[in-house]
Write a structure and sequence with these properties.
Blueprint (H helix, E strand, L loop, with lengths): L1 H52 L3 H9 L7 E5 L3 E3 L6 H10 L3 E5 L2 E10 L3 E10 H4 L3 H45 L13 H34 L1 H13 L4 H24 L35 E2 H18 L4 E5 L5 E2 L3 H18 L6 E7 L3 E8 L7 H4 L11 H12 L3 E6 L5 E8 L24
Parallel strand pairs: 7-9
Antiparallel strand pairs: 1-2, 1-5, 3-4, 4-5, 6-8, 9-10, 10-12, 11-12
């Protein structure tokens, strides 16, 4: 491309220069020739008044000497002959004398001017002025050389400018091509600095946006795989408890081995999906849902768009599932639900995943017989889900909130809960509760009321308390 741009500039500039140079060169030659002929005619005309006054050869020679190029002035007198060296052809001279006609014509070696002068007695004298060829082209070669140098300079300058512009365009194109190849090879960190013409700058900006969006989508996909894998731990926990009840039977060892192998595979999937990607904020909610800014406000009157569910109802169903397992492990389970509407901007599955993750952590990280409590509270602008237990608690709450950094676990359970809360514009808090162990409080921003004709699914049960022991 660079060579092509330089070639185009060379061709165009050369044609423009030649289109002006050739007519200008011819004009310069014509002007120099006209100036020489005009000067010769003026000298002949300047000597004519002297000739009308006197025909004395000495006076005529003295007058001719005062004019430029006097050596080419010749006076043909009717009686005294010729004063000077004549170069005029005889036929032209006779024509000027007989016809009393001024003649200016090209002759071999130059240009001849014949000016007849009528003397007293009806006699005719002729003033001859010869202009050599060198005088007719004096300075033309130098003018042509200057014009040629200017044309060459103009062509070289245009080619140089085109080459510089082409180099900038080619550099931008090469960097964009290299970045595209690097991105295609798997380097998700590659970016380009927009440069060059506006079109290439726009292409660079679009490439960066595409690369950033690609890393975001890959990160969301990895999060989805990890979250779905983590949600499979809920039935795995149930299988563990079932195998414990089967202890002592021939099938128990085989079931326990199968469950252990399945859990190992899930850990491998979560670890692979959790491989860090150098990306910015994902801008996505739980399981790929949109963030709170575009889906739900922070107050009860915020506009609703997207999924919506009654948090209390989902918590009641999932806690009932875990209550069966708690009874088998002699865990006291307390459930306290508000009777007010608890609509949040999440789907039933997302809220169920949060409840399963938090209660599942209680079963996995506390010994059998450890009590736990689940509570749903409605505040002015949020729905609070509180899960607490009587276990040892969380020694490093800040570290526990970092995905994948929790000691002894994948760290996905708390991350699922945290991202679900922030997806609605809420928050998450870790501390110690009245039972002595960890207390996790999730605040979900209230979603707007459902459209007319649709009634929310609200639990009509009184605050429940599921107890064992």
């Amino acid at each position: 491309m660079r060579r092509s741009l330089a070639g185009v500039a060379l061709a165009v500039t050369s044609m423009v220069a030649l289109s002006f140079l050739i007519p200008l060169a011819a004009l310069v030659m014509s002007l120099v020739k006209d100036q020489g002929i005009t000067a010769a005619e003026q000298r002949a005309a300047a000597l004519a008044p002297v000739l009308t006054l006197t025909t004395d050869p000495s006076a005529l020679r003295e007058s001719a000497a005062s004019l430029d190029a006097a050596e080419h002035l010749v006076v043909h007198l009717p009686d005294a002959g010729v004063l000077g060296s004549s170069k005029a052809p005889a036929e032209l001279l006779e024509r000027a004398q007989r016809g009393r006609e001024s003649i200016s014509r090209e002759v071999p070696g130059g240009w001849i001017c014949l000016q007849p002068v009528v003397l007293p007695g009806d006699r005719v004298a002729v003033i001859e002025n010869f202009v050599p060829e060198a005088d007719l082209t004096r300075g033309v070669a130098e003018s042509w050389a200057v014009m040629t140098l200017l044309a060459v300079g103009l062509i070289c300058g245009s080619v140089l400018v085109a080459d510089r512009l082409g180099a900038k365009v080619v550099r931008s194109s090469k960097r964009l091509a290299q970045a595209s190849r690097a991105l295609g090879a798997g380097d998700l960190e590659t970016r380009v600095e927009p440069m060059g013409p506006r079109e290439l700058r726009d292409a660079g900006v679009a490439f960066n946006a595409m690369a950033h969006r690609m890393t975001e989508l890959l990160a969301v996909e990895r999060e989805l795989v990890a979250d779905l894998s983590h949600r499979l731990r809920t039935p795995l926990t149930a299988l563990h408890l079932a195998s414990e009840r089967m202890a002592g039977t021939p099938e128990s060892a085989r079931v326990e081995a199968a469950v252990g192998e399945l859990e190992t595979e899930l850990r491998a999937i979560i670890a692979a999906a959790r491989t860090p990607l150098a990306v910015g904020p994902m801008g996505q909610g739980l399981l790929g849902t949109e963030p709170a800014a575009g889906r739900a406000g922070t107050g009860a009157g915020a506009a609703a768009a997207g999924p919506r569910c009654e948090a209390a109802e989902v918590v009641r169903r999932r806690t009932a599932f875990w209550a069966v397992l708690a009874e088998q492990q002699d865990r006291r389970c307390c459930l306290d639900l508000t009777q007010e509407p608890t609509g949040v901007g999440l789907s039933d599955d997302d809220v169920a995943a949060v409840v399963d993750a938090l209660i599942g952590n209680v079963f996995r990280h506390t010994p059998s017989g450890t009590p736990f409590a689940v509570r749903v509270v409605r505040t002015a602008q949020a729905v609070e889900l509180v899960v607490e237990d009587g276990g040892p608690g969380i020694p490093e709450p800040d570290r526990a909130l970092s995905r994948g950094s929790s000691t002894g676990s994948t760290g996905l359970g708390l991350d699922i809960a945290h991202r679900a809360a922030t997806a609605t514009g809420g928050s998450m808090r870790l501390d110690r509760g009245p039972l002595g162990g960890a207390r996790i409080t999730l605040a979900f921003a209230l979603a707007a009321a459902p459209l007319a004709g649709r009634r929310p699914r609200i639990s009509r049960r009184r605050p429940a308390r599921l107890r064992r022991g």
